[in-house]
Amino acid sequence: MTDPRFDALLAAAPGLRLTTERSDLEHYGCDWTRRWTPAPLAIALPASIGEVQALVRWANEHDIAIVPSGGRTGLSGGAVAANGELVVSLERMNRVLAFDPVDRSLTVQAGIALQAVHDAAREHGLQYPVDFGARGSCTIGGNIATNAGGIRVIRYGNTREWIAGLTVVTGAGDLLELNRGLLKNSSGYDLRHLLIGSEGTLGIVVEATLRLAEPAPPTNVMLLALPSFEGLMQVFAAFRERLQLEAFEFFTDRALRHVLAHGAQAPFDEVHPYYVVAEFAAGDGAHEAAALAAFEHCLDAGLVSDGVISQSDAQAAQLWRLREGITESLARHAPYKNDVSVRVSAMPAFLAEAQALLAREYPQFEVVWFGHIGDGNLHINVLKPEALEAADFVGQCESVTRLLADTLARHGGSISAEHGIGLVKKAYLEGTRSGAEIAIMRGIARVLDPNGIMNPGKLLDR
Q1: What residue ranges define each of the domains in the chain, with the CATH number in brackets?
Q2: What are the DSSP E strand ranges found in 298-407?
Q3: pLDDT tens across 387-405, in order?
Q4: 3-state SS string for 72-133
Q5: Dist. CA 462–CA 446, nearest whole Å
């Protein structure tokens, strides 16, 4: 570690862990996009708020950009450090700080893994209901930075709904305590919500107070086989009308084929074009009867062709693996990913147009669809052929994404449902946000990060 500027940083924060080992630079300098070659200046691993403030003030003094780093499970290039930035990983700030049984809240450091939050809430007979497949590696800070959604948004909403308070170090090095866990607070702008979804461009979330909920009711899981794409939203309507849905997830036969090749068990003797995993409250026999009634209604209408309902927790886990295992099973194909959303009411029209668009524009590539259909969120994965150079593949996909962005704009949708904008989707931000909105966002960034050091190049250009 030869850079003389580090001497001043370590003098200001003697306990700060700092590394320039090549393996660490490569490990911490990228996220799941894998499109950019990591090239950070160094990796800082603070263990306290004071150390975070010290390194932000040092970065301002020396004009060094900062990339905040959580679990780096993002898919939009939001945690990439490819231009000599200082990566600030909060993995050492990973403790539960307090539990309040009256407020039913849990205060944690931002580097704590989502799974650890689930476990801590469960110890107190409660739940933190935000959940996704990467729960073991993603962190609360990263979830907050992208307003992450996941598999239970249909029942519980996004991360935003469960944040009672935030402690943030701004891009100027100031410490803000936002909302302080209050349920009601009509005292001006709620800066807490401004930081949620800001992708590390305004400051670094260091602590969060999370709202907890009653434990989830007993549930059953049903896997449905669908003969056609067109009836998908009718099946959703039939189940939502009769059941308290916890999740309603969709995937295609192509997605299932990859998951089965990755070790999952085939759910049916026959292969069907489309599948839905539906999880629903099932505290008594009436709930299961309602589920069967919904299934029989869809079967009689020709909307579903087969189904299975879980009879044990183990079987429920097997059915969920068919959906949650998709991303991991596709990883070796270096997929180009679209993460889009529209209003649920606009989903049928958008689905029809998007399916036709992708079938026309991607005749040479395998396209794998899946998503949180119950909240209007679709994941579209385009698989790279082995013989095609990565740059050529991305170039072809981006030309199609421009067409998809136009389609989304016509249907009032968003190019990013839950993974953020980062580097990958920045060119399409204007399809979701107006010019006036983007100008206001830039102005806010200049106030909280006056020297433009916080995750520059991500989300928007300043």
Answers
A1: 5-91 (3.30.43.10), 96-211 (3.30.465.10), 219-327 (3.30.70.2190), 334-431 (3.30.70.2740)
A2: 306-309, 336-341, 366-372, 377-383
A3: 999 999 999 999 999 999 9
A4: CCCCCCCCCCCCCCEEEECCCCCCEEEEECCCCEEEEECCCEHHHHHHHHHHCCCECCCECC
A5: 8
Helix (H) or strand (E) holding 224: strand 219-226
- Please report the pLDDT score of residue 1 as a whole number: 61
Cα dist from 421 to 74, 147, 361, 405, 412, whole Å: 10, 11, 23, 13, 17
pLDDT by residue (tens digit) across 80-121? 999 999 999 999 999 999 999 999 999 999 999 999 999 999
pLDDT tens digits for range 67-76: 999 999 888 8
Looking at the predicted structure, is the pLDDT value of residue 301 above 70? yes
Residue 97 tokens read as 């700080």
Residues 149, 135: Cα–Cα separation, whole Å: 12
* Three-state SS at 69: strand
Q: Tell me the average pLDDT across 173-192.
A: 95
The conformation of residue 321, written as its DSSP 8-state character, comes to: H
Q: Hunting for tokens 């996909």 — which residue is that?
A: 397
Tokens linked to 198: 């800001």
Q: How far apart are CA 367 and CA 383, in angstroms?
A: 6
pLDDT of residue 149: 86
Q: Which amino acid is at 235?
A: V
SS3 labels along 361-377: HCCCCEEEEEEEHHHCE
pLDDT classification of 150: cutoffs 50, 70, 90: confident
C-alpha to C-alpha distance for 199 and 209, rounded to whole angstroms: 18
* Per-residue DSSP letter, 429: G
